[in-house]
Amino acid sequence: MTFIAHISDLHVSASEFNEEIFMKAVAEINHLQPDMIILTGDLTEHGYYKEFQQATKYLEMFEAPLFAVPGNHDSRNLGYQSFEELVGEKSWKLTFGEKYTVVGLDSSSPDENKGHIGTPQHLWLEHQLDECVINDHFSIVALHHHIVPIPQTGRERNVLSDAGDILKTLTTHEVDLVLSGHKHVPNIWKINETVVVNAGSLCSSKLRGKIKNSYNVYHITDTDIEIYLNNVGGEKFLFGKYPINTI
What we know:
- The chain is an alpha/beta fold and 247 residues long.
- The chain has one domain: Purple Acid Phosphatase, chain A, domain 2.
- Helices cover 24% and strands 27% of the residues.
- It contains five helices and twelve strands.
- Strand 1, helix 1 (19-32) and strand 2 form a beta-alpha-beta unit.
- Helix 2 runs parallel beside helix 3 (79-86).
- The longest helix has 17 residues, at 119-135.
């Protein structure tokens, strides 16, 4: 079984970041001992270099390997440069085990809230997913912006500008999991054979209504994906269970 923790939207800053909640989340996730942690953007609130310095120190507290993509807040104030220097590449591919591939995409644009993948990155994504199909890999794509609207988030403004083309690529390649953040609202859609999962905010104060700080956990076996929603310091429950395509 493969075990993945999915966190998002820390918003490290002097005003929006809750350190106490973050420390609880670190303790919980380290106790779970996931194989990896995927962070889908908005490590920082303003993209300032000092915020990235803070964020990287916080992220070092996680014991599992952590892989991150940037969010729209991370690309403000030259933050896209700071991300590459202090966190790593903005888009990437990794393989682990014998049958797993994770592709990270940069959906951010400097000083804009809206998301965009763009033609060069889209072509690169298609190539990576072609290889997943050929090699019969379980495929995961991680990006910050959601590719379909999320309920309970009000007027839709920030879905990917090229969402239709990206969604077609993801579904025609039967990507197993698509992970995103951005809206601070946990949600699952199943589109054809692809499960699209949105994570809430791990530790920021920017929460809608009664929604709590949370993270997602994925248990992946030879037959299915179990998705758990974990409220930080609170209840944990099965969010969804789906058969897998291939492994």
